[in-house]
Amino acid sequence: MKNKSTRVFLLASLLLLPFMVSQQSLWIDEAQTASYATCPSLLDWAEKFLADTKSEGMMPLPMFLAWIFAQGIGTTEIALRLPNLIYLGLAIYLLWKVGCKISLPFLPLLFAVSPFVWQYADEARPYALQIGLGTALLTSSIYLIQSDGKSRKAWLLFFGCGWLLSATSLMAVFLWCLAFIAITLLWRKENWQLELRHYAVISLCLILFIPLAAFYFWALQKGASGAKIWSVGLQNLAFAGYEFFGFQGLGPGRTDIREAARLSGGLTTIFKPYLLPIFLLALAWLCFFASGWPQKNQKRHHGAWLFVLFTFFGTLFVILTASYIVEFPFWGRHLSPLIPFFLLIMAIWFSNSTHQKLTRISILVTSLLLLISSLCLRFSPRFAKDDYRTAAQIAKSGLEDRKTIWWAADSAAANYYGLEFSEKVINVMGLSAEELHSLPIPDIALVSKKDIYDPQNAISSFLSERSYTTSYASAFSIYKKSAF
User: Fold this and answer.
1) Is the peptide bond before 294 cis (omega within 30 degrees of 0)?
2) CB hemisphere CA count around 436 (13 angstroms)
3) What is the pTM of this model?
4) pLDDT tens-digit profile of 254-311?
5) Neighbours of 290 (CB within 10 A)
6) What is the residue extent of each domain of the chain?
7) Positions in the chain whose pLDDT score sits under 70
8) What's the CA gap between 467 and 327, in Å, rounded?
9) Would you call 263 exposed, middle or buried from its count of C-beta atoms within 10 A (0-12, 13-18, 19+)?
10) Of 89, 105, 185, which is closest to residue 144 (Cα–Cα)?
């Protein structure tokens, strides 16, 4: 079904890619990626990686690719994000191939207008890579299902994509495991007749996962882990749904949501001005689901339908359960490789509609609202990243005037923007009131997210008790000593 009409969906999707990345300041997590990209040599990279006990120490493939790409295109903000366009461009092409194969040609466009995709396309983090590899895993699975397991090439792609995806983070391993279980169940259910060469390929590929499993076991033993700032609860799943369904661009900014969540009734207040656009998108999704009910034509995509349902919801359940056990508060970004599975579920559901007029209206309105949400994410000031670039410039300007600077924010981002700590630039992150009183009084203090960098509220209290003027840049409180 590779005719001109299907290529229009592919072309339209690819044309949206260049608008997804920006030159905004790096924020906290991106600065950690930059610290790997700016390593002088591969040996320095390896030494840093092996010693890292943060979440990046469990992301071998993304951190390595960040260093590789940096050798060719540099380490500016946009250069660190540009590789995302390669990963997402590949995802769009693969979804087009899948869409053509199972008669869902609009699938790549549904992907390209997704606010979730736009949000993580503009982050120098592993999420766009995971989306691309998740799409590759999905594509190889569809080809495997349609060949009844007889395609050796599809098996190699399935295991290859699964291995690469598993090398992006420990959480991505859950998706691979559930996808493999789903394929195995379909294999048994459909009674695939495999030959000895297929079993040889499967056995060899499974052996290749042993070193990767050993690495993650070692990384856990050395204490590598992500931040555990927030408690685990249904709010994690709710916010993941908020992002997956594309509401985030129509609502308040993430920094504002973060601050409001810490206050009683804060979320109700902050969402109030955005209820109308959120309601319109919710209504569009409701019509979307209504148009696909009941599923009269499910047999047309029976194998793919069972596979994506089992893999998507099985992975969600496992991640939610594991998060409760280890008390790790996952968010939507940790589910990035699931987004192509989610969109395929939506597309298959939608294709079952027996109401053609409602179908066309629903897909048009939903896609339009999703695109508006995506454009808001990219261009609206309320979604600006934590402005470390401006904060570092303020600190460096103060340093030129021989002023004393206090810095309570991410140190890797400070270093990326050329701010080095010294007797005049003091990193006061997390210090107690007693420790602060022993330091030189600052002329300028820059304090970012207080739950991370000032958890005892000692820095804010210290500065509030003195004569400082206060201003605000994205995710930063800027204190300057009054002239009087």
Assistant:
1) yes
2) 22
3) 0.93
4) 888 877 766 666 778 889 899 999 999 999 888 877 776 555 445 556 788 889 999 9
5) 12
6) 4-383, 388-481
7) 1-5, 226-230, 261-265, 292-301, 352-356, 358, 483-484
8) 41
9) exposed
10) 185
